[in-house]
Structures are given as C-alpha cells and as structure tokens.
C-alpha cells in the first residue's frame, strides 16, 4: 500500500563540499510527522520546484536537489542606435556595461547597466533631442568626475574636481540648458614654497621645519628671518603672506 505524503523537506546543502546532508526524523511522543520543509542555501534553488516525494513500502522516492543558481548574464539588451564598446558574450554578477549613442543622438537614462542575479538593469534610450550639449568644457588643472560623453541631453549635469593642492572656485556642478553648459568652475593654482626660494630671501617658515610646502589659494603663510639675518626694508606684516592663485609676495632679510 502506498502512502502519498506531501513533504516540504528541509535540505541543507554543504557549502564546503557541495553535497546534500539530510537529517533523521525526530521522535515525537504521541504524535506523527507529516511535513518537513526544504530550504536551500543561499545561491541554490530547488530543481524543477519539486516539493512532493512519495513514501512507499521500500522507503522514500528520490528526494529533490538544490542546484546552484546561475547568476551570470548574457549579452546586454540591444538598444536601437547604440553600441557597447568591448562588449562580451558573458558577464558575471555585478559586472557593468556602458552604452554609447550613434549619430550624435541624445542618451536618455543611465548609460550603464548592471548584471544582477542573472538579469540586466533597465538600459537607456538613444533618440533625437533638441537643446543637446556636446562634451563639457575643459578646465585647467581639473576634470569632470565621470567619463565624458559625446552628447548630453537637456538637463544633464556633470561635476568637476581639481588636482591635488588646487582650490576649486565656483560651482563644481554644471548643467546643460538650451544647448549650452553653465559656467564651469576654476581650479586656482597652489603656491609652492621651496627651500631654494626661502634661501634666496634668507627666510624660513615660522612654525614649521619643512623644506617645501604647498599652500592653497587664500591661505596665509608666516615667515621669519634665518638666524643672523634681519628684515630688509620689508614691514613686519610682510612676514605673513597670502597665497593668491599660485603667487606669493616673499619678505626679504639681509
């Protein structure tokens, strides 16, 4: 006589060896076991969604198995009038792909798509757009924080950053409006105070023994005469100098 039992069987899959490990049924006084639950480890799923096994005279039928989930993705979605540089046939979970539009069309949406659990995030569109902007304007000693595109849709914005020791003046974010970018910021020069310059003026740093320092625009630097030297005409206030876009008036001692 066959007894059909609907079983939600608990199956723990060993991460270390990839082998199934089953547990004996617990002994229940004054009761019977009718259901147990199947739970696959993270990254695994039940093959064919099987959740029923049969209890026959000679034991249980073949139990279900937990199979590893394929989290990789194939080629990214095809976007009309767009291409993906260096496209691959297969991508791993977490990999990204970046679209570029052809024929100077505007890109709407996120240029990058990401492979997540075997599926791609939503791709962008490439279509005609009025009031588009070209590449953001270049600035001295700075650049935008993202890879530049050939064309930007109206309302798009980018941010700038300056090289080390340069001071950003203005709004770091610019926006495309009516086919024109808003005013970009400037990266103001830093002042380089070297040992050679200080020796030429017979001065040294008042509060530091460093032989070379970088001072940002609008920062103040204080000097004093080297031992055995005295101020040469310079007023006392000249020994507290301010850096102005890479330039600094040095006091002199003799």
Automatic annotation (TrEMBL):
Entries under PROSITE patterns matching the protein: SUSHI (PS50923)
Alphabetic keyword roster: Disulfide bond, Signal, Sushi
The UniProt record lists the keyword Signal: yes
Disulfide pattern: 133-176
Gene3D superfamilies membership: Complement Module, domain 1
InterPro entries membership: ComplSys_Reg/VirEntry_Med (IPR051503), Sushi/SCR/CCP_sf (IPR035976), Sushi_SCR_CCP_dom (IPR000436)
GO biological process: complement activation
Gene Ontology CC terms, in alphabetical order: extracellular space
Signal peptide bounds: 1-18
GO MF term set: complement component C3b binding
The Sushi domain, residue ranges: 71-128, 131-189
Record-annotated membrane-spanning stretches: none
UniProt-recorded name of the protein: Complement factor H related 1
Organism: Myotis myotis
């Amino acid at each position: 006589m066959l007894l059909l039992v609907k079983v939600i069987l608990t199956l723990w899959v060993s991460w270390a060896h990839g082998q199934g490990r089953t547990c004996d049924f617990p002994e229940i006084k004054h009761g019977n076991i009718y259901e147990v639950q199947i739970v696959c480890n993270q990254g695994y799923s039940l093959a064919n969604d099987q959740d029923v096994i049969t209890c026959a005279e000679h034991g249980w039928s073949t139990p279900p198995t937990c199979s590893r989930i394929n989290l990789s993705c194939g080629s990214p979605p095809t976007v009309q009038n767009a291409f993906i540089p260096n496209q691959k046939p297969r991508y791993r979970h977490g990999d990204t792909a970046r679209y570029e539009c052809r024929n100077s069309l505007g890109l709407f949406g996120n240029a990058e798509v990401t492979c997540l659990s075997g599926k791609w995030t939503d791709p962008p569109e490439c279509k005609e757009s009025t009031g588009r902007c070209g590449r953001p304007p270049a600035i001295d000693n700075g650049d935008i924080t993202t890879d530049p595109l050939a064309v930007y849709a109206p309302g798009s914005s980018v941010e700038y950053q300056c090289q080390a020791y340069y001071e950003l003046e203005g709004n770091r974010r610019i926006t495309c409006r009516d086919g024109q970018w808003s005013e970009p910021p400037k990266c103001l020069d830093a002042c380089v105070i070297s040992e050679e310059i200080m020796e030429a003026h017979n001065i040294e740093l008042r509060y530091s023994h460093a032989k070379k320092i970088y001072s940002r625009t609008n920062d103040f630097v204080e000097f004093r005469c080297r031992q055995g030297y005295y101020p040469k005409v310079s007023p006392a206030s000249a020994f507290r100098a301010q850096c102005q876009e890479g330039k600094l008036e040095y006091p002199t001692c003799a």
